[in-house]
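re: that chain from earlier
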Amino acid sequence: MLISETSNAASSKAEGTGRAIPAITRVSPFASARTVEQFVAVVGPPAVGKSTVTGTLADRFDVRVFRLREFAREFRSRPAADQRLFDTRDPLGWLTEETVFLLLQAAFVRGQFPARDLVVLENFPGSLTQLLLLTAIADQLRAPLMLIELTAADYLVAARARTRRVCPTCEPDLHGDSHRPARRAARDPDRCDSCGGGLLPRRGDESQRFAARLARFRRRIPAIRRAATALHLPYRAVDATGDPDSCLQGVTTALAATDPLALLFASWREHL
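^ sequence. v structure.
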């Protein structure tokens, strides 16, 4: 087993969560070679703007963005990968928590996700258990962890999902599930501004699937907030009802107010 609820872990329970932080399978040859200095997790309801914010951070400030779905697909494509790890009965296709933990260890403890200094995690954690797994990894690496929640009303994110489009040319996907929002061309809103290719609705934005994703987020986020408080993790809520630039401003303001990111992000804000 990759995750074990040992007596050690049980003694590390987050007060008020009722859950133990899982014990980590130590991989000492890699732990000393870490390069991650800080984790920032960006969460929020579907279509709130997480991909836009994290993508802008990556483009403007050379921040590495960890997307679990992308790392999982790359990991799964390796010849030695055990395909059974990716079997799931979850109606939304979520991987098991044991597989998630294996991927986090591979990415950050074994250093298979090339990163330095700051890593932004997009749309992760999505559950209390995932937060505890991430906290365990961060503790092992002695890397501080901060949570930022982008907030917006259900009617607004639903409206955004109905109009959001992706570009399968700019972001080809073997499973036909391109994810990152595309910029529409000014002369033809059904075409990609970058490549001119045709745009498509994102698969996850289909009305019933989107409603299920939104309901899952609303159901799980209260426990994540409570655990962040109990674990003394910096947590900031950022209003994402405005345009992407104002949301980005809110994110960088939150980061600039949080040690040890203050000096880094205070200088970034001057370039916005």
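The radius of gyration is 19 Å.
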